[in-house]
Design brief:
The complex is a heterodimer of chains A (298) and B (361).
Chain A lengths: L1 H9 L10 H33 L18 H9 L2 H32 L5 H12 L7 H14 L5 H26 L3 H9 L4 H12 L1 H17 L2 H6 L8 H10 L6 H26 L11
Helix pairs in contact in A: 2-13, 3-13, 4-7, 4-10, 4-12, 5-7, 7-10, 8-9, 10-13, 12-13
Chain B lengths: L2 E8 L9 E8 L4 E5 L6 H9 L6 E6 L2 E2 L10 E4 L11 H11 L4 H15 L14 H13 L5 E5 L7 H18 L2 E6 L2 H7 L2 E6 L2 E6 L1 H6 L4 H6 L6 E8 L2 E4 L5 E2 L3 H6 L7 E6 L4 E3 L6 E11 L3 E7 L5 E7 L9 E6 L5 E4 L8
Parallel strand pairs in B: 3-8, 3-9, 6-7, 7-8
Antiparallel strand pairs in B: 1-2, 1-4, 4-5, 9-10, 11-12, 11-14, 12-13, 14-20, 15-19, 16-17, 16-19, 17-18
Helix pairs in contact in B: 2-3, 2-4, 3-4
The chains are: A mainly alpha (298), B alpha+beta (361).
């Protein structure tokens, strides 16, 4: 019995050929690179985390080993700054952006995938090429557009302009992604649904949308995260601290000497991750792909 | 329901030529019509036009005398089974089958009754609440059939429904499909490239090639009276032997004079106008006479013997290098390399005009 066990341990079970000396060195080097990479990513995050809770840190973050656990910086954030207003602004802007993007991309992605119409390829190409121009390049146009629209509709705020800019950018890139995803869904499903009595809109709503849900979830998530990350447009377009988004607001904590508080910035950054992490966990189930398997022969 | 196609033609957007043209076809009520043809012949296009999934460029499509060219698919009272089954992956088997009825706002109770009845008929009651991904290919196929059955359609359309099944299951489902067809009493239109399916299931076969109907008729006609060389070669396995030659002084003489054949009396009457003209004869592999003691004979060298059990397929070579396929009963002894004499069953020779490829006798 014992002998048998020994034999089992010696069995080579991998499907790949055994490693040569060069192979082993290669793997070692690969791991070195990977660990260096991980270090480069994790170390700053770790520093941010430590500084946010370090009561010994003052206005400027100093690299030293003094540590005292405290939530002083968080308190500062909530009482001395407009942090909660920024959170509210960002959530509104991000939520609206995600919703608008989802609705429009649903239609454009489906239409580009399923319909043949004049200018289909040309417009797809145009969308792709326009992507190469950075969004910020249109800043003067945004200002002009905003002043024109707000002269007609006074309620049209800078924040709304920002939502439209974010949505526009997200629509362009995500149309491609969704089109590609829907392309991979057999058109026989559409045909079957049409025979079963669906209108074109119902084919999308009842059949295609549930199948494309993992991709739609990712698209919604991306366009939701976008406003959290973008600093430049928010900073330029929004004029008062009351209307700032998180990125723009937090930035005042590290650049403006009147409000300078670097540990609070770290604390704010840490908290920013919370809604996104919650969203990821909540949508985890939707993100699991592979829903299409089994619909057609596979 | 009676389905009539009058001069139907289809041209796809951006194509030069018509994919299908001048298609005239009557499919009677309760008929099992098989549309057969090689790939790319337009058979699926034709089916999709009947379903309303593709538009009809020219001609009329009549259901029971009513023109339905522009009627949307859902109002044509049809059901279709797709090659890939096209089951909705996010719905259970039950919901898949109930979908069309719930779209029609049918009452819950009626939907339930119909779905269960169809599930019973197809023996899929046990996995009504599984997702399509969790059941086997054969079961998915049944669900696809079930989805069509619950609608109680007037016309049942099938687009190569068996092509994704393994050979044994396919054999079984062929019989089952015919049984279901009879039970439902609908008109069925079935598209396939497999001549065995067509021969075994159809009450009417329509053979398409290059966008044209080559022959319409019963399976028996197709085998015994193919109307041209294409039909003759398409139906039957192994393929019919076609020998080109000339008709001279009441005899068929092949190109290198390796085969000389005197047609039967009836055939000679039909061949009257073909003196000194190029004609081709067709003979099915099983219609050769081994031994060859009577009438015209020829000698051939056996090159390959395929043993199938109930029959042996001999691939023989004539002295001029041309090949013939001969089928003999399995217990006859033939070995590779042997030279044998063979004769013809003179009543089973098909004569074709070589130029037009049309049948003569």
């Amino acid at each position: 019995m014992k002998k048998r066990k020994e034999n089992k341990e010696k069995l080579y079970l991998s499907d790949k050929p055994p490693l040569t000396l060069f192979g082993k060195i290669g793997i070692f080097l690969t791991y070195v690179v990977l660990f260096a990479w991980v270090y480069a990513i994790v170390w700053p995050l770790f520093q941010m985390f430590v500084s946010a809770f370090n009561g010994k840190q003052q206005q400027y973050i100093m690299a030293n080993s003094n540590f005292e656990f405290s939530i002083r910086h968080f308190q500062y954030l909530f009482t001395e700054t407009l942090y909660l207003t920024w959170v509210k602004n960002t959530l509104i802007i991000a939520g609206t952006t995600a919703l608008l993007t989802l609705i429009v991309v649903s239609f454009t992605g489906y239409a580009y995938s399923r319909y043949r119409f004049k200018g289909r390829n040309a417009s797809l190409m145009a969308i792709m090429l326009i992507q190469t121009i950075p969004t910020f390049a249109g800043i003067t146009a945004y200002f002009t557009m905003h002043s024109i629209v707000s002269s007609i509709i006074p309620q049209f705020s800078r924040q709304m302009m920002l939502i439209l800019i974010y949505t526009g950018g997200a629509i362009a890139s995500n149309t491609f992604i969704l089109k590609g995803y829907i392309d991979s869904v057999s058109t026989e499903l559409d045909d079957a649904a049409k025979i079963d009595g669906c209108s074109n809109f119902n084919v999308y709503r009842l059949i295609i949308m549930p199948i494309a849900r993992p991709m739609l979830t990712i698209i919604a998530l991306w366009s939701f995260i976008g406003p959290f990350m973008d600093y430049l447009l928010a900073k330029v377009l929004l004029t008062s601290p009351q209307s700032y988004t998180l990125a723009a607001g937090l930035y005042t904590l590290v650049t403006d000497f009147r409000t300078m508080n670097q540990p609070a910035f770290a604390a704010g950054g840490l908290l920013t991750a919370v809604p996104i992490v919650i969203l990821f966990i909540a949508l985890q189930k939707q993100l699991v792909s592979g829903l299409t398997s089994g619909s057609v022969k596979g | 329901m009676k389905v009539e196609l009058k001069n139907i033609g289809k041209k796809y957007e951006g194509r030069e030529d018509f994919t299908l043209r001048n298609i005239n076809l009557d499919i009677d009520d309760k008929e099992f019509c098989v549309i057969l043809g090689p790939s790319g012949c337009g058979k699926t296009t034709l089916l999709r036009m009947i379903a309303g999934l593709n538009s009809i460029t020219e001609g009329d499509l009549l259901f029971d005398g009513r023109r339905v060219n522009t009627v949307p698919p859902k109002d044509r009272d049809i059901a279709m089974v797709f090659q890939s089954y096209a089951l909705y992956p996010h719905m259970t088997v039950y919901d898949n089958m109930a979908f069309s009825l719930s779209m029609r706002k049918e009452r819950k109770k009626i939907i339930d009754e119909r779905v269960r009845a169809a599930a019973k008929l197809l023996q899929i009651e046990d996995y009504l609440y599984s997702k399509p991904a969790d059941i086997s290919g054969g079961q998915r196929q049944r669900v696809a059939l079930g989805r069509a059955i619950v609608r109680n359609p007037k016309v049942f359309l099938m687009d190569e429904p068996l092509s994704n099944l393994d050979a044994k299951l396919r054999e079984h489902m062929r019989v089952e499909l015919v049984r279901i067809h009879k039970q439902l009493g609908t008109t069925s239109i079935y598209v396939t490239h497999d001549q065995t399916e067509a021969m075994t299931m159809a009450t009417k076969i329509v053979l398409l090639d290059k966008g044209k109907i080559q022959q319409v008729g019963k399976p028996d006609d197709f085998y015994n009276k193919p109307s041209n060389i294409f039909v003759a070669k398409f139906i039957g396995s192994p393929t019919m032997n076609i020998i080109d030659g000339i008709y001279k002084e009441g005899k068929f003489i092949s190109k290198n004079e390796t085969i000389i054949l005197t047609p039967s009396k009836e055939d000679r009457i039909a061949l009257k106008g073909y003196e000194n003209k190029n004609i081709s004869i067709g003979i099915r592999p099983e219609r050769f006479e081994s031994g060859g003691e009577f009438g015209d004979t020829f000698t051939a060298t056996i090159e390959v013997v395929e043993m199938l059990g109930k029959e042996k397929i001999l691939h023989a070579r004539l002295s001029d290098g041309s090949d013939l396929v001969i089928s003999t009963p399995g217990h006859y002894v033939y070995n590779e390399g042997e030279v044998h004499k063979f004769g013809f069953d003179i009543n089973a020779i098909h004569f074709f005009d070589t130029e037009t490829t049309m049948r003569i006798n």
